[in-house]
Each structure stands twice: as C-alpha cells, then as structure tokens.
Amino acid sequence: MVSKLRILVVDPIHIKLRNYIEEKFTVTVKHPITQQEIIQCINKYDILILRSGAQVDSELLSHGKNLRAIIRAGTGTDNIDLHALYNAKILFYNTPNTNSRAVAELSIGLMHCLFRHIKRASNEIETNIWNKKSLMGFELTNKKLGLIGFGSIGQEIANIAKGYNMLVSCTVAHYSTKRAADMNTKNITLFNHLEELMAFNDILVVCCPYTNSTKNLINKDNLCYLNPTSILINVARGGVVSEQDLYHSLINKNIYGAASDVFEHERKISPLFTLNNFIGTPHIGAMTNESQEKIADLIIQFLKQEFSD
C-alpha cells in the first residue's frame, strides 16, 4: 500500500509536494543532514527526495537496501551516479527544464548587481557612506552577451537579453556550420572557439552542464581573454570555473567583476567572499515559488504513476 512507503527528504521542497507526500506516505524530513547521516539511516526508507544536498553513489545505495526510487527535485544529475542506480534497479526521476526561467532571471539580476555595485552600495549606506561618485556603473542595454552553453537556461537568458537590445553569442559542445547558420537566423552568433567568445563579449554567463570535459573549463589560461570592463557569471556548477584562478583575476582587476550561484565546495567559506567585485549566492537559482511549484507538480505526477494503489 502507498501509505506504508517511507520517504526521506533531505532538501527543501515546495509546500504542495510536502503536503501531498505527508498525506500519502510516511515522511521524514531531515535538513540539513550530512552524507554520513544519510548513509546511516537510508536503509529505513523506500524513496529518497533530494536536490543537491547529497551524493547518490554506490556507497549510499549499498546501504539503501529498501530503496525503490531516487527523486531529484531539480535538473542536475552531477550528484547522482546514474550507472549505479541502473545496476541497482532503482527508479530515478528528475525534473529538467523546470528552473530555466528562474535561473535566467537570477543571471540578469546578478548582471545588474555587478555593473551597478549594488552589493557595495548597500553595505556602505548601512554605515552612512554616500559615495555616489565611486558607484558609477554600466547599463545592460546594448551590451555584448556571451553564453557558454545554449540549453534551456541559455535560451531563456538570450530571450530576456533581447529586451535590453543585447548582442547575443554563444558556444556549444559540438559546433557545426549548419548550427551556426541556423542560430544566425535568430540573431545569435555561434563561436567555434571559447577564447573568441570571451574576448568578444562584455558579459560572460557560464550555463553549461558539468562534465569531465567542462571541469575547470574557465581558468587562468582563458580568463586573460576577458577585458577589464567585462563580468563573468556562473550559474552552471562550481567545478566549471576554477575559483582560485577567478580570485586572482578579480583581485588583480583583470576583469570588472564576477558572480556565482554555485561553488565547488558548498557550505564552505571561499576567499572570493572577501572581494567587493564578487557576489555569491547560495545556489538559489531554482528557488522561486513558480519553479518549485512546477517541480512539485511533476514529482506528484510521478509518484501517482509509479506508487498508486
């Protein structure tokens, strides 16, 4: 019976989803929780619901003898060993493309924050510093925007950028002249080489998947192609940008500023946080009511389909 299935939730979820599972299942919510704590208790549960708060690997699965499904309340699978899940014959469900608009809007917000010094302005006014001249910034209108990756998030950013009359270009994993021609009809330039994209644009947004080939994709060898008035924003995954190399670029004023919603090691202090020309957010790209409600609806549909009476 559905009512006997036990669900462990280790990340924040939308109230609609929480209300549904608490009505239909036996639910335990443990957040925050460490990886080791999950491993120690996972054998008690049939279903695990998570976002990025845990690693689903062979070690965890070896302890989850009763697991029937892993549900990722979001898009990314870099914290999920899909091969191990397949071998263990455990169902996996995630919700791709549900957070694209939310992440895109956050990206635009971070552009404004960097170019208009909003972080520093807010900090200074709290101590009655009104140094307007030092807060001279830039508008987004007519800027050149480069996107590393052109999936659903990149496409949403490009759509919003049209309202600012930005000139949009991008790079993708697999370049072809046909794809470049197709994108040109949409007024988007497809570059074949990352360095060309970086040198050309005022704003660089990293929104590609995290894979072996994109680990430390942005590093000291190509950060030098950005100009001193350009900004970099990472809404992909922390490991795509070398944080150490980015720190040195920022502290040496080689670029105007940077922002990141993702970090290689979350819940740890980074040297980047000490810089006035850096803005960090705690992986909140998908944290809008609208996005989380979409995710909730899809997971409820999945649970009804797979675990109904």
Number of spatially distinct domains: 2
Q: Summarize the amount of helix as a percent range.
A: 25-40%
**Number of E-type strands:** 12
Q: Total helix count?
A: 12
* Beta content: 15-25%
Supply Rg: 21 Å
What is the averaged pLDDT score?
A: 95
What is the name of the CATH superfamily of the largest domain?
NAD(P)-binding Rossmann-like Domain
Intertermini distance: 6 Å
Oligomer: single chain
Q: Report the sheet with the most strands, covering strand number, pairing sense and barrel closure.
A: 7 strands, parallel
The main sheet orders its strands as: 8-7-6-9-10-11-12
Uncertain residue ranges:
none
Could you say what the CATH architecture of the largest domain is? 3-Layer(aba) Sandwich
Q: If you consult CATH, what is the topology of the largest domain? A: Rossmann fold
General form:
globular
> CATH class of the largest domain, anyone?
Alpha Beta
SS content category: alpha/beta
SSE run: EHEHEHEHEHHEHEHEHEHEHEEH
Structure description:
The radius of gyration is 21 Å and the shape is globular. Strands 8-7-6-9-10-11-12 form a 7-stranded parallel beta sheet, sandwiched between helices. The protein has a 5-stranded parallel beta sheet with strand order 2-1-3-4-5, with helices on both faces. Strand 1 (6-9), helix 1 and strand 2 (26-29) form a beta-alpha-beta unit. The mean pLDDT is 95. It has 309 residues and is α/β, with parallel strands linked by helices. It has helices at 15-24, 35-41, 58-63, 82-88, 100-115, 118-125, 152-162, 177-184, 194-200, 220-223, 243-251, 289-307; strands at residues 6-9, 26-29, 47-50, 69-72, 91-94, 144-148, 167-171, 188-190, 203-206, 231-234, 257-260, 278-280. It contains 12 helices and 12 strands. Helix 1 (15-24) runs parallel beside helix 12 (289-307) and helix 5 (100-115) packs across helix 7. The protein has 2 domains: 6-98 and 289-307, NAD(P)-binding Rossmann-like Domain (Rossmann fold), CATH 3.40.50.720; 99-280, Rossmann fold (3-Layer(aba) Sandwich).
